[in-house]
Structure formats: C-alpha cells, structure tokens
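Design job #97: recover the sequence.
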C-alpha cells in the first residue's frame, strides 16, 4: 500500500461506493445482456425499435437513457421493467472481494458511508438487505425514477449523497469502476479511487483523472485498517 491511497482514504470523512462493480457483480447470475433484451422486447411490444447502435447493446441503462431522450411517454413503463430485472439480478449478484468488509470498516471507523448508483434503489436495497449491509450504509443515492438524464456522469447523485450525509465534497471519497464514475466524482469535487476489475480498465480510469487506481478493494480495506478511527 502506498502513502497516496492512505492519504485519500484517511483524509475522507465520507466514503461513497458505486454499486455494480465496487460492491458486487450485479449481473453475475442474471446477465446485463438478458436484462437489455427484456427492455428491448418491452419497447418492441409498444412498436418501438431503438437505433441500430442499440440493437444489440448489452447495457440496459443505455436503452433507458435513449427512451428518456426520445420516448418520454414510455419512460415509466421501461423504468418499471428495468427495476424488476435489476431486483432479480440483485438476488443473484456476487460480492466483490473485500467490498463488504470495507463498507463495514468505513462505518466502524466513524465515516459516513453511502452508495451512489445508476441502478435502482430497489435493487441496491435488496442486495444490502440480503447481505446484512444495510446497517452500515447511511445513504442511498440511486437512479431517480423517470430521470435517466441525472445518472452519472452527472454529479447530481454524488452531491445528493454528500448533502444527505451533512458533509462537503472535499471531505468525501468516491470509489467507482467506470470512466463516468470518475467524471462524476471530479465534477462533484470529491476525491476519487478507480476500481479496475479488469486490467484493461486501468488506462481509462487513469485517463479520466482518478486520484488512485486499485485492482482490488483490499487496498482500500488495508488503508482503513491502518488508519484507525477517524479523528
């Protein structure tokens, strides 16, 4: 562990985690591509075909964003379809190594803990409840129903969590696994750590301005463990 990550973690009174990636593999047992196909089928049932670029896209959030831009009349229905699929996925999700321990230790060392996610609050809550993590997480700032335009890289979900925890961005650390997470954190004014769950993610996270990049949440856990309680 280097002094850089120790300073990032040790100097933060609030630690915010993205959900899918840093906390769990949300779609491990119910693949994102299957969820996207379900959303596409719901659109097709309404006589709507997304553009060619989204015809086979495996990311359901891109389909939701497209619906929000082009078919607002169908947005509530597509939100409901996606939420149901995300909850199903949450029930089969697999934990990210060391993530649960990091969440618990962050709370036990006096830090505010929040989840900031483009996924639905219903899915995040279901996962936290199943894994006995709800008691450690003070704030959930998830996708706002009917407003996909406010998903990250918008800084709004992070700023909402920071405000709910009574903190300020400069005292917070956001841990995410995507370029859009780093962009959102930087725009919100928080420190950032990029979690590279695959080596090919490292250049993108570094290029997006991550304060530090780790290939395991073990580094965050070690930083919390060595830093002791927040003063």
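Job complete. Output follows.
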């Amino acid at each position: 562990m280097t002094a850089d990550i120790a300073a990032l973690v040790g100097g933060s009174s609030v630690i915010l985690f993205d959900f899918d990636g840093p906390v769990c593999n949300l779609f491990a047992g119910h693949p994102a591509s299957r969820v996207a196909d379900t959303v596409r089928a719901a659109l097709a049932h309404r006589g709507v075909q997304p553009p060619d670029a989204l015809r086979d896209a495996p990311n359901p959030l891109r389909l939701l964003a497209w619906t929000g831009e082009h078919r607002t009349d169908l947005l509530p229905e597509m939100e409901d379809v996606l939420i149901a699929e995300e909850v199903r996925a949450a029930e089969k999700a697999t934990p990210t190594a060391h993530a649960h321990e990091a969440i618990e230790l962050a709370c036990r060392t006096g830090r505010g803990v929040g989840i900031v996610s483009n996924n639905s609050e219903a899915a995040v809550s279901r996962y936290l409840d199943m894994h006995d993590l709800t008691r450690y997480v003070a704030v959930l700032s998830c996708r706002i129903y009917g407003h996909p335009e406010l998903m990250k890289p918008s800084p709004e979900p992070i700023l909402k969590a920071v405000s709910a925890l009574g903190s300020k961005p400069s005292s917070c650390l956001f841990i995410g696994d995507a370029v859009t997470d780093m962009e959102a954190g930087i725009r919100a004014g928080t420190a950032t750590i990029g979690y590279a769950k695959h080596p090919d993610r490292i250049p993108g996270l570094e290029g997006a301005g991550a304060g530090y990049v780790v290939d395991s949440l073990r580094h965050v856990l070690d930083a919390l463990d060595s830093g002791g309680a927040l003063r």
